[in-house]
Amino acid sequence: MSTTSSTSNTEHPTSFGVFKPVGHVVISFPSADQAQAARAAIEQTGLPPGDVHFYTARAMLQQIEHDLACASSIAAIGQELNLIKAHQALAERGYHWLVVKAKGTDHAREIADLVKPLGAERAQLYGRFIIEEMIEHEGDMPQVAESPDRGLDAQTPSGNERERAAMRPAEPALAKTGDR
After folding, report:
1. How far is the C-alpha of 144 from the C-alpha of 58, rounded, in Å?
2. What pTM does this model have?
3. In sequence order, what are the beta bridge partners of 164?
4. CB-based contacts of 166: which residues, under 8 Å, 6+ apart?
5. In the chain, what is the straight-line distance between the N-terminal and C-terminal CA atoms, in Å?
């Protein structure tokens, strides 16, 4: 759910009951300030403000809870469930999000390149069949394997997204204020 408007089918596209915004880049940030700075930078490139949606950690957690309750058993075949569980691990640590409409893979890379120095942790381009990670950080381990059973490869020693989130935690002030 966007913080500026109510949820609708166009704002919350799904595949088998799970959030899957095909043609969009889903970007996570340790703080709301970083996400808002990135939003402003993206909008300065000429992308219409309606193509950039901001989610607080709390809004993302509510959406994930809804998705987990509504997910079809078919969603477990691909990575959709694992991906929202990875998003959940970041949101539980106070991460905030942008969902940005991309005009294609090259545009998605431009968006990722723009937001990475502004603190973006993840930028994932959702395609029809593939969800592509657009940001690599120094120190990321090589991706090994992903499967519905193993989950996503977080490119950390444990392979766990919570460990990845702990590497670049949200600002302590956010956790204290409850802006989640």
Report:
1. 31
2. 0.71
3. none
4. 93
5. 14
Longest Cα–Cα distance in the chain: 41
From the list 4, 24, 5, the residue with the least C-alpha distance to 13 is 24
Question: Would you state the structure tokens that stand for residue 126, as one six-digit string?
Answer: 């959702």
Mean pLDDT lowest for which of 7-11, 61-65, 165-169? Answer: 7-11
DSSP annotation of 120: -
β-bridge partners, 147: 151
CA 173, 178, 180 angle in degrees (round to 5)?
100
Beta strands in 64-121 (DSSP E): 96-101
Q: Can you say how many angstroms the Cα of residue 36 is from the centroid of all Cα atoms in its chain?
A: 15
b or e along 33-61 (b: 16 or more beta carbons within 10 Å of the residue's beta carbon)? ebbeebbeebeeeebeeeebbbbbbbbbb
Residues 133-146 pLDDT 10s: 899 877 776 655 55
User: In one letter, which amino acid is 123?
Assistant: A
Q: How far apart are CA 13 and CA 58, in angstroms?
A: 19
